[in-house]
Amino acid sequence: MRIEFDRDTCIGMFQCVDEWDGFEKNLDAGKADLLDSEETDDDVFVAEVPEGEEFEAEFAGRVCPVDAIKVYDDDGEQIV
């Protein structure tokens, strides 16, 4: 499972941080950070979701109020 985080879209509500340890607060920037991710382009960060953390990662994507988080299954289909 892969997760993508559009940091430009993030408004710093930090709901993702409350739902999954893969995100952390960056109070200096007023936005969340996706841990262990790589920046692709335009401030989009991508990471593999560790085994056993799929539910939490999906939920982090579902609670984002501005849809800055997308989650894809192993076949590349978007599930959030």
TrEMBL record:
Keywords: Electron transport, Iron, Iron-sulfur, Metal-binding, Transport. GO terms for molecular function: iron-sulfur cluster binding; metal ion binding. The keyword Transit peptide does not apply. Pfam families: Fer4_15. It comes from the Archaea. This is Ferredoxin. It comes from Salinirubrum litoreum.
